[in-house]
Write a structure and sequence with these properties.
The structure is a single chain. The chain has 162 residues and is an alpha+beta fold. Helix 1 packs antiparallel against helix 2. It starts with 6 loop residues before the first strand and ends in a 19-residue tail after the last strand.
């Protein structure tokens, strides 16, 4: 049996229970392109790797968010995984603060100075896909704290009931 290395991508309301499955670099590019050209409150994607384990309760033990700005032509990445904790892409120090993007209309805040060129966002998501969900090495990561405020109970429908 072949391992399922596809990524589950959720960026539109319809994807909440039925994610878009990404298996190729072209699939990744299609999603990033859709974020760059789609509705304003759909400029981020929630990503899970099917190659990574789930908790005993059936929840993913990891998640990645990628957000992009069509105006600034930059984006940001955030990743939560047991081996790294909560990390975000390292952008340039003079970048804007208060970085926020929206996946399927759900607001997602990124750390200040986390925006990088869109080409690096694409490269990191492709590496996440092709490595079976390993932490991408093509960008630098920095740890960050996640606030308990505004935490929703699994809005992505990513529990084990699929």
């Amino acid at each position: 049996m072949t391992a399922d290395n596809r990524l589950e991508a959720r960026y539109r309301p319809a994807d909440m229970r039925n994610p878009v499955l990404l298996s190729t670099s072209d699939d990744v590019d299609s999603v990033i392109d859709a974020l760059l050209t789609g509705p304003a409150l759909h400029d981020a994607v929630h990503i899970l790797s099917r190659a990574r384990p789930r908790t005993p309760a059936g929840f993913p033990e990891h998640e990645m968010y990628a957000g992009v700005s069509r105006e600034l032509q930059v984006g940001a990445l955030a990743l939560t995984a047991p081996e790294v904790g909560h990390v975000a892409s390292v952008g340039v120090s003079e970048a804007r603060s208060g970085v926020a993007y929206h996946a399927a209309g759900h607001w997602t805040e990124f750390p200040d100075d986390s925006e990088i060129p869109i080409s690096l966002v694409r490269e990191a998501v492709k590496e996440f896909l092709h490595s079976g969900g390993r932490v991408p090495n093509c960008i630098e990561w920095k740890p960050f704290e996640i606030s308990d405020e505004n935490v929703e109970d699994d809005p992505w429908g990513s529990s084990g009931d699929q």
